[in-house]
Amino acid sequence: MSKNSLRLAKSAALLMWALNSIAQPSSAQTGQPQVQAPATPIPTGPSATSLDLDRNKGTMLQIQDALEKEEARPKRRLLTEVSPQELEFQDYVNKNYGKWLPIFGLDAFSFEDQGFDAPVNSSPSEVYEVGIGDQIRVKLTGSLELDATLVVDNTGFITLPRVGAIQVAGIRKAELQAVIGKAIARLYTGYSLHVYTGALRTISIYVVGHAARPGAYRVPATSTLINALYASGGPSPAGSLRAIRLMRQGKQASSFDFYDVVAQGSTVGDSSLRNGDVLHIPPAGGRVAVLGAINQQAIFELPAQGTSIAKLLQLAGGLPAVARIERITVDRIDRQKPEAPKQVISLDLRSADAEFLLQDGDVVTVQQIGDKFSNMVAVRGSVYQPLRRPWAKGLRVTDLIPNASALYSPETARVRNDLAFGQTGKRARLPATMTPGGVVATSEEITGSKLESLVPADNINWNLATIERINELTGQTELLHFNLGQALRNPGGKDDLELARGDQIVVYGDKTLTLPEELRNRYVKVEGEVHSPGVYQLAPGETLKQLLERAGGATNRAFPYGIRVTRASQVALQKEQLKKAAQLLEDTVSAQSAEMLGAGNNAEQKSMNESLIAEIKRRAALLKTQTPDGRIAIDAPVTATAKDLPDFALEDGDTIYLPPKPTHVSVYGAVNNPISALWKAETNLASFIEAAKPKKSADLSEVYVIRANGRAETVSRGTLFSMGNTPAYPGDTIFVPEEPVRMSLTSAWMNGLKDWSQVIFQMVIGARAAKGL
Predict the structure, then answer these.
(1) Contacts (Cβ under 8 Å, ≥6 apart) of 293
(2) Which of 52-66, 167-181, 215-229, 465-479 has the lowest average pLDDT?
(3) Whole-angstrom distance, CA of residue 689 vs CA of residue 675
(4) Helix (H) or strand (E) holding 40
(5) Do residues 761 and 627 lie in contact, with contact meaning Cβ atoms separated by under 8 Å?
(6) Helix, strand, or coil here: 246?
(7) Which secondary structure element, helix H or strand E, spans residue 609, and what is its range?
(8) How many CB atoms neighbour CB 377 within 10 A?
(9) Which residues neighbour 302 within 8 Å (Cβ) at sequence distance 6 or greater?
């Protein structure tokens, strides 16, 4: 509810109470006979009516006055708005300990509208004392029928029709029905009586001292000390929360400790308020700061009688499990000697120190338990799961790491699981361990998968691990290096070091440190026409020919001439080179376009030249979008076997594909019948181009052939007859370009264009890239 809505609700409640009082007819207005108590005569007739009207008029004036005071009342400031002078102890702690601590309990009053005001129409407790202005509802059935709401007048009486005036002021609610029933019983019998309280009066109280909003308040008569405290915004930062005094007729009626509410939720010390009560908030008593390993770090107020450190820490929520109960420090200021240095007192709560009495200005620090284990050894780093176990004399590295499987990282475990249980549900053949030179995975399901998805991202460095050891004399950390692989292969040997108390074994991944090439874990995927395709871990210095032999050798259908070796590092390099060449071609065309456009003899020729320029630019832009596959061309005779391949050095991440021998030769470009014709021995390029029926616009002076080994060749013969001496190989892709145009261009420009075409086709290795042009 907003502040305006809350204020409107309060005003409406007060107004309804006043209207109910006015609407209740007086005894003179009803014309009913007046029955007076003999000892206390009550005025009747016009005087009674005048008294009721005066009372109601006064009530309205009180309501108006209360609303005006509420509007003019200064609003509660947030804690952050309090002036620094009010928070000197907080500043002291912040400057000396680097921690700004809140005042314990004060945040309960941090906001303006708390909603803790006693409701105007709330049902009072049984001990509530009826007073002037309260409404009493009396319901009679039986021999006497009556249902009336009566207001206690200024003399403390209610006037009950056909009964008379009954004094009720000062009577507790629990006794009210008995008192009214006794008065009725003197005149009537055979009736049933029910008495209820209606709208209650408001009372005037005063909040003084170190309050956030001191002043006079009009509150419901059911209000208690806590209601008044919230209505006034609570104590200021300089005010006390532990010694709030309720003054009544110049004497102290009670004292209240708000910490009981905050820390325990207890309202035992709360007191009902009476008209004219004064709530006095004295200055705060002594204060101490509590910080460190405690559930609530704050500044606490000490009670007048003082308190022990154990009780104060209980107020702060108690000590958590990580607190060191044997190491509590108290920094104490000597008020008699302000220039003297602070005194540091060390306490152990397990002893009589728990009853140590705190003083104003003390700063209590609770130490936290450290992460050091007294009898622990551990393994961490590139392992599947960090391990801790109790230390015992004679414990060695292999007692914590018995085998390689204990060190698999989560990524390695995921990869191994994926390989073991593929999407088809078939189980792959896996090695028991991953030793240098071993096969990582062999399965039909992984063919075509990316190598990075099959090889763990961070493999174990078997050649180096360290033991971190704390020197108990110097406190310095010492590093002991050992060969992890040797320790596992030779338990009890020189690398299987004995562990000391608190040692931590650190296992590294092969990417953590830059190792010599022969020590790195390198993986290559082998696919195609080999007897054992899969992912292999390279041995140091292993070549293409050697790895193919280890993969079972080539099958009878293999075509080693067309072997495809792709390398990730070459993709970016080839793409950058292709981009530069395409950009240079664009720049050349742009620079010479004026000469081209001026070379036309008529409008038709110029239009053709413009179309040619646009087409060249389009192809150059298309070249920039091509992504080479990173293939490395391997030179070998077309009749080569796997054993004839060169000793090509392999790198980590290479993919080798040994294709089957192709049976066709493809022809496309400026031909009427693009074909993929069956290859036969001793055939030449001319026979395939002739079968594809070249167009009249075909430029036979610049025919390109992309061989199965990835090489792109230019055949510049000019006629089909002259190409008869150029052999065709299985898997060839022949591209016949269009004649640019018959136009009067300078020979230098035309030669340059042809040179650029040759460069581009040399760079676009692979028929897939060439077909995109």
Answers:
(1) 319, 320, 322, 323, 324, 366, 367, 368, 369
(2) 52-66
(3) 9
(4) none
(5) no
(6) strand
(7) helix 603-625
(8) 23
(9) 242, 285, 286, 287, 288, 312, 358, 359, 360
Q: Nearest Cα to 230, choosing from 273, 275, 274, 284?
A: 273
Nearest to 89 by CA among 347, 322, 288: 288
| Nearest Cα to Cα of residue 113 among 208, 16, 8 | 8
**Closest by Cα among 526, 544, 563 to 662:** 563
Q: Helix crossing, 747-763 with 568-598: angle to 10°? A: 160
Residues 733, 713 contacting (CB under 8 angstroms): no
pLDDT over threshold 60, residue 337:
yes
Residues 6+ apart with CB under 8 A from 243: 255, 257, 282, 285, 303, 304
Tell me if residue 101 falls in helix, strand or coil.
coil
* Eight-state DSSP code of residue 128: P
The Cα–Cα gap between 111 and 233 comes to 8
**484, 464, 511, 472: which is closest to 400 by C-alpha?**
484
What DSSP character marks residue 270?
A: -
Nearest to 760 by CA among 601, 626, 581, 639: 581
DSSP code string of 322-371: TEEEEEEEEEE--TT-TTSPPEEEEE-TTTGGGGPBP-TT-EEEEEEPPS
Question: What are 645's two structure tokens?
Answer: 């391949």
Please name the residues in contact with 27: beta carbons below 8 A apart, sequence gap of 6 or more: 34, 44, 48, 159, 161
Residue of 400, 372, 373 lying closest to 386 (CA atoms): 400
How many other β-carbons are positioned within 10 Å of the β-carbon of residue 388? 13
Q: Report the candidate in 482, 474, 477 with the shortest Cα–Cα distance to residue 498.
A: 482
pLDDT tens-digit map of 483-511: 998 999 999 999 999 999 889 999 887 66
- Can you tell me whether residue 508 is helix, strand or coil? strand
pLDDT tens string 87-126: 788 888 988 888 889 999 888 887 655 444 555 456 787 8
Question: H helices then E strands: how many in the chain?
Answer: 18, 31
- Nearest alpha-carbon partner for 330 in 366, 295, 298: 366
Look at the block and give the residue holding tokens 């992984």: 446
SS3 sequence of 380-401: EECCCCCEEEECCCCCEHHHHC
Q: Given this model, what pLDDT does residue 414 score?
A: 63
Q: How far is CA 410 from CA 377, 416, 419, 746, in A?
A: 22, 10, 14, 66
Tell me which residue of 406, 421, 499 sits closest to 460, measured CA to CA: 406
Element (H, E) at 724: none
> Distance between CA 514 and CA 502 in Å, rounded?
29
Whole-model pTM? Answer: 0.45
